[in-house]
Known about the structure:
By secondary structure, the protein is of the alpha+beta class. It has helices at 70-82, 104-119, 126-136, 140-145, 179-184, 197-203, 213-219, 221-231, 252-261, 278-287; strands spanning 6-24, 30-50, 55-58, 87-93, 149-153, 157-160, 167-172, 236-238, 245-249, 267-274.
Amino acid sequence: MPEAEVLTLPAPAKLNRMLHIIGRRDDGYHALQTLFQFLGHGDTLTFAHRTDGKIRLDADLAGVPTDDNLVLRAAHRLKAVSGTRNGAHITLDKHLPMGGGLGGGSSDAATTLLGLNRLWNLDLPLERLAALGLELGADVPVFVRGHAAWGEGIGEHLTPVELDMPWFVVIHPGIGVSTPGIFKAPELTRDTPPITMARALQGGASSWRNDCEPTVRTLYPEVARALDWLGERAPSMLTGTGACIFARLEREEDAEALLAEIPKPWHAFKAPGRNRSPLHDALDRRAS
């Protein structure tokens, strides 16, 4: 790859199609069982090679200190592990809301790892990149691996799955939800009996739920209002710890019609479900 080449890559959103909390571990983290699926919608990152070894980021993320930005943390971690002298100028075009449960920051980090691995000609295997991703956050590995998955542990033990791929309408009710706050809430369900992946898949979407949803409803009335409104129109659920909620529609025109009804000031978008990450599709197209 020529040094001057610029890579522009997607950082797709994810949905938790189901999320069970089956216990609390000795280290304080919660043991989960979940189904991850990607969306054909997300952020975009552009990577330009620098010969001076420096890493720079252009991004307008209110309230996120530079040192805490997952894109920069991922880039510096990859540079340190690989020993490369290369640098990069990274531009983040942010579309996914922060604190929305769509995995935006984790997806940005994963795209950074895979993008710079390609830009810098490092050829690190996917397993190594996923391990680096886990150092940055529990959701990063699923974005690195790039396939819809059954997740266990804190979400890092992944088994690829094939899920239905309907259209989704996603609503962000204009507030952020604190993930630590939800997991610390005394009323959170933490004792859902474990199930097998086969049983979860056999039950299908109509049987899936999110154990965080009742707690988020209680603590965030605006999310509860959005859930009630959307639930009257299509099968709906919270993703992650929120604040985003999603409805499953069979056809794009159904999603378009529902999108037109969304009341202000809520923000919303429609997107198809994807079992293979758009990031990996984009990298494959670049390689061909």
